[in-house]
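Page 42, continued from yesterday. The earlier attempt failed because a stray header line got pasted into the input along with the sequence. Redoing it now with the clean sequence only.
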Amino acid sequence: MNRTVLVAVHTGRDAAVESARLVVDRLIDAGITVRVLDSEAGEIGSDRVEAVPGDPGAVKDAEVMIVLGGDGTLLRAAELARPAGTPLLGVNLGHVGFLAEAEVADLATAVDSVVAGRYDVEERMTVDVVARLNGQVLADTWALNEVTVEKQERLLEVVAEIDGRPLSRWGCDGVICATPTGSTAYAFSAGGPVVWPEVEALLMVPISAHALFAKPLVISPRSTLAVEILPDTPCGVLWCDGRRRFELPPGTRVEVRRGSEPVRLARLHGVESTGAPFTDRLVAKFELPVQGWRGRVRP
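This time it went through. Structure tokens are written below.
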């Protein structure tokens, strides 16, 4: 059976391009067909790959998509992989890299795990978002990490709503509606809670709200969240995963609910620094102090 892997890379980094060449050569030497995006093929410089346009057709029939870069690169890759249901395997070449499965030091081992089929696939919840103004749809899109309604210049005046009922009015810099995966991204920076990825929930986190009640909220995944920009407030902007941007005139209503399609992530077997429990990832990424921990007393 012919196996195909799509390799995507942050071509703005020399180290990432060198890593991509290693991945390409190792996969091809193992008898696997390798595709790369045509916008990246020149940087990779291999005549043994198949260059394809950067659209959802790039992942058609691909077993997995290996992504070399930071979380931003993986979020870009998710836009291609999600419609096809193709799993993503992230190799972190950035800073924190919560979405990545492997670090660059484990690159060869990670590729060997793909070749041997030693990985599982987990599904990460997404959110769908629709923005409307007087019945007209201004945006209809999705996000893996978060959807944010943000100010452009002056404070926004918004009313937050849960399941068709008003919750509170905030004068604020914005409101974040996040998934558990996104809880360690923008929502975390804004004071939101860390939510383990297997927890099914939606988060709403106001940004610098001028109000007594402006706490982060953890809400049922079956709920619909809404943020209404009041008519007498300045224009806002909608960001989805920090990548897709839409203007929001005064009076716009933004609705967020659980996504219709998940993003699938590959999780490797038997590699110490990859496939780690989420608790270990938190400790490693934030360098949390755990000295003195003894663990459970075993009989």
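Notes: The chain has six helices and 20 strands.
Reminder to self: strip header lines before submitting.
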